[in-house]
Amino acid sequence: MSLCNASRVVVWTPVSACVRTMKSVNTRFPKPVHINRAKVLHFTRPIKPKDNRTMAEKCNLSQSKQNMKKLIERPASPIEEWAARQVLKNFSSSQLVAVFHAEGLTEEIRLKLYRRLNKGNMKLKVYNNRICNMAVQGTPFENMKSLFVGSNVFVVSDEASVKSMLKITDKVPRIHLLGGFVIDRLMSPEDMRNFSQLPSLPMVQGQLAGILSAATSRTYHLLQANQQRLSNNLSQLVKQGEEKKNDETDEGS
Questions:
Q1: How far apart are CA 112 and CA 152, in angstroms?
Q2: pLDDT 10s digits, 232-246
């Protein structure tokens, strides 16, 4: 005798059960809803109020510019002034200041880029745009203010090693060159690439010294040509006179 009969517990057994006969559910092309339900969904959907703002007012970029303008107009704190002085000091002591736009630069990529630049005697810096605008105000770097937009990183170096910098940064697709200051001159990305193709300064100085020395030696030879020719003619005349005198002596004897 079973336990159920012993305890007199009534066990309910379902008459029917739902069984899925399909192998998989079609999620790409779902079955359309019933016509009555479709009508209910259509007439009960929410109606949003019409936005009467202009395209410029809807643009998030315009709002961010307005917020940035309010941020720039507020007075600077002592910490920001100190940071601006440090940025200006770093810019002034460097012959190369390059500005790059960072597009989703992760910490791992930033660390690898920092190590590669550090081997080439270059430094990777990250500055706030507000601090940079304060630092370059009224200085020779003021024309760089148009580059301080968005998320930027800076490469500074005591040497104008533009070729080495481009060789390293071109391998990182997450950063894009916007321009920079090279030897007290503002350059565009194209100008910096043209500058990197120029020979080094010692090589140019050696070529210039060779050209100047060649012109000097040519001038010296031209000035000495007449004197050398006169000396050769006189030597030839003396030699001919001695030969004639020896011939006359031989005939007399």
A1: 17
A2: 888 888 888 777 777
